[in-house]
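Quarterly update from the structural biology core.
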Amino acid sequence: MKSFYERARELNDTLLKDRRWLHQHAEVGDQLPETVKYVMTRLREMGLEPREICPGGIVAHIYGKKPGKTYLLRADMDALPMQEQNNLPFRSQTANAHNCGHDMHTAMLLGAAQLLVERTEELEGCVKLMFQPSEEQFKGSLAMIQAGVLEDPHVDACSGMHVMLDEEAPAVGWCSGSISSSCDSFRITVKGVGCHGAMPHLGVDPINVGMHIYQAFQSLIARESPPKETVVLTVGQFSAGTTGNVLPQSAVLQGTLRTYHKELREKLVRRMRTVAQAAAAMFDAEVEYEVLSAVPSCIGDPELTAELAEYMTEMGGGRVYQAKPFTPSDDMAFLTERVPSAYLQLGAKVPGNPYPHHNACVLFDEKAMPYGAALHAQCAFEWLKNHH
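Predicted structure, tokenized:
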């Protein structure tokens, strides 16, 4: 019997075809009509019966001939609303681009589905396939959970993976405990009173209020966060006014808070609201504090992650190593809150390409895909076999 990796390498042309079609037809959010149609067609070709359980969210089941538990494999499918800048012959034909690698995630899960369908005689239990929309907006995972992805049958464990740019293929990293940081996105609108720049006493300057909010936010990190904890508070937008001789009516600050520490996150989110309101009161302005996202840290179950690391090592074909947490966020975190989960980091670095995720020039090494597809299959198959 061939290993999953040996068989996955035989399917390399199919993996490339899937990935490149998805790359050319990049779509965003939960509006993924072409992506959904393609993925569901491919799954039906394998003899599966996929369902779209929420806008852009697909579920399919692979039932083994032997009874057992249920293991979920997850991949995100959405792209970014940006143009790519490269010379790939399969560049995106839409206004969007897969500059985070989700096209590879989808193609690898399709490949894993084929590998597992071919082994249903030996498969014990059920492998549930989760093709998710809206990861970039941190909405898709929760939408699929609310639509019942973790039930019927109930999911006992799950894993997902992301292509990473710190290791060349084939390699996979594992990490238990906190893996990705939380992400609390916010928009603060300061409402002042506009007036002539020569008579500032007749108005309320929202820029001044915004500056005090910004400075106080930095003190939350410097004076209210333990030095040993990782906390990133970024204000990426501060906009106000249209000319130099008029105090504007309003100013807008928009940014994100990220950390791995649950209690510290809750404290800082509370304090950020207090600071914004206090600054407004101090200068007789008003503020509106909007929550744009509230994603927890992605947590790798220690027992499950250690077990999967053994399965991946046994399969061979690439380097298996202990990875470090990273500060970007992933809404797979909502899954990890509900079932024992593992999040794998798949090496896909292209030598000589220095660009990071979400950059218009980023490239991902397609040589990682057979290994990634095989890892998906290996983890699900072996876990079900050892957990009747």
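The mean pLDDT is 97.
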